[in-house]
Design brief:
The complex is a heterodimer. By secondary structure, chain A is of the alpha/beta class. Chain A contains eleven helices and nine strands. Chain A starts with about 25 loop residues before the first helix and ends in a 7-residue tail after the last helix. Chain B is α/β, with parallel strands linked by helices. In chain B, a hairpin with a 5-residue loop joins β6 and β7. Classes of the chains: A alpha/beta, B alpha/beta. Chains A and B meet through α1 and α11 of A and α3 and α4 of B.
């Protein structure tokens, strides 16, 4: 049987690298645990002592403000010590290899690495290489996966819609380059969402989309009809330079979420976006700030979900698989 | 061994609690058994007492050994802890480690005026300097025995004895 590199011999989560291949029970355990972290924000002391004395290294080989900050807040709310390293600017430019960097940091008594890297598979490589007591969280690798983003999206959907097994969810935008979309699709299908739609231009939807169990729409108006959840993806400006897209204005005309298009979805549909938003490119400002938008809740829930992931990993027994 | 009836124990606890009640009193039950007992207790006084629950999973001292409890429930304290006279309720008092964790968590909600510990059963075996002021029953159990509070579908509470599994 193929072994999942994320699970230890007891089936516990040892690393979080990708949603692909994780059992539904594991995803639900993370979401349920996050629920318990949510109300800590309302107490006088807004942290718990769970990871006191643990050292968590934020290894960001690719810049990201929001993801790094929410991981840092989550770790601090668990009372861990957090060390932020923006490696793109230091050792890598001096020619040190990825594994050399990790070896050096392990020697500084790290307990957990949060890894963001522009190459797909970087977090897997580190997880295979580190000593058994060290845990690795993938905070986004290339085009491959961004599991904590997908989990916080599932938490948000469950918070507003409760039962996931009756939902129609539409993901709109650039799926080709999106690690977020890939992880979302795995999470949605694992948790039993019966209908996942992917809406976008032919050039930005990979040919394998239908094999992942999604229905592909190139016409946004058809695709949004009667959906319960709309997830907008960020259009990366650098994609505009190639031949994939004509212009931001053109993109907005066909695939930007406007109030008129939103009206095609169910009246209680929620609008989500992983951030940072390009207002006027993939989403109209009035929709981003409108009553159906839950975009800021996603950020708040992201902290609780990352606390859950870190505490579950830190509590799992390391060792040979 | 004949195990005591729960209803009698809870009435006995209420009798011991009564003289200490003030306008600032509140009940806090520890998940899961302590919350069941606290809920029953809260119905036994002339004036209903504010009632909250604690899940101490994030405060346990054995996290690094056994990891996170598989079913964490949110703690729910629907009143200000600051300056309250808290009656902390658990089902079984044994090593005292759960109570230490619960008190640490309570203080993260605020500074209570006082905390009294009320337990259904004190089975001995303390590993920390913690004692209950309100006790339903003292039971002498062998170290290898576990006593557990169960709740049936009708909400009826009962005690059962188990041999500890290694």
């Amino acid at each position: 049987m193929h072994k999942n590199p994320q699970l230890n011999k007891h089936g516990e989560l040892q690393h979080l690298l990708t949603i692909d291949g994780l059992p539904a029970a594991t995803l639900r355990h993370i979401l349920d645990t996050a629920e318990s972290f949510l109300n800590i924000a309302e107490r006088e002391v807004r942290k718990v002592p769970l990871l006191r004395g643990k050292a968590i290294f934020n290894l960001f080989f690719e810049p990201s403000t929001r993801t790094r900050t929410t991981f840092e807040i989550a770790a601090k709310k668990l009372s861990a010590d957090v060390i932020n390293l923006n490696i793109g600017t230091s050792s890598q430019s001096k020619g040190e290899t990825l594994l050399d960097t990790v070896n050096n940091l392990s020697a500084m008594q790290a307990d957990m690495f949060i890894v963001r890297h522009s190459e797909s598979g970087a977090a897997h490589l580190i997880a295979r290489h580190v000593e058994p007591h060290i845990h690795v969280v993938n905070a986004g690798d290339g085009r491959h996966a961004h599991p904590t983003q997908a989990l916080l999206d599932m938490f948000t959907i469950r918070h507003y819609k409760q039962d996931l097994t009756r939902l129609r969810v539409a993901i709109v935008g650039d799926m080709l380059h999106s690690r977020v979309a890939r992880s979302q699709i795995h999470a949605l299908t694992t948790l039993g969402v019966p209908e996942v739609r992917m809406i976008g231009p032919k050039t930005l939807i990979p040919t394998c989309a239908e094999r992942m169990g999604v229905q592909v729409y190139h016409d946004m108006e058809k695709g949004l009809k009667d959906v319960d959840v709309i997830i907008m993806l960020r259009l990366q400006n650098e994609r505009m330079r190639g031949a994939l897209l004509p212009s931001a204005q053109e993109y907005f005309k066909y695939y930007g979420l406007t109030a008129e298009k939103l009206a095609l979805a169910r009246p209680d549909a929620i609008v989500m976006h992983p951030g940072p938003m390009n207002r006027g490119v993939e989403i109209e400002s009035s929709v981003a700030d409108g009553v159906q938008s839950v975009i800021l809740s996603q950020v708040t829930f992201g902290i609780a979900v990352r606390m859950a992931v870190m505490s579950i990993l830190a509590g799992s027994e390391g060792g040979e698989q | 061994m004949q195990l005591p009836e729960i209803d009698a124990l809870i009435l006995e606890m209420a009798r011991q609690i009564k003289p200490h009640l003030t306008a600032e009193s509140a009940l806090v039950g520890i998940h899961t058994g302590g919350a069941w007992v606290a809920e029953k207790l809260s119905e036994l006084f002339d004036v209903p007492l504010p009632f909250g629950t604690l899940d101490i999973s994030f405060y346990r001292d054995d996290f690094s050994r056994i990891g996170l409890h598989p079913q964490v429930k949110p703690s729910h304290i629907p009143f200000e802890v600051e300056d309250r006279h808290i009656i902390l309720v658990d089902d079984v008092l044994n090593t005292g480690r759960t109570i230490r964790a619960a008190m640490n968590e309570l203080f993260d909600y605020g500074r209570p005026a006082s905390i009294r510990l009320a337990v259904l059963v004190d089975r001995g075996g303390r590993e920390l300097p913690i004692e209950a002021q309100i006790v339903g029953a003292h039971l002498k159990l062998a170290a290898a025995q576990n006593i557990q509070l169960n709740r049936g579908e009708s909400g009826r509470l009962s005690l059962s004895l188990h041999e500890k599994t290694a």
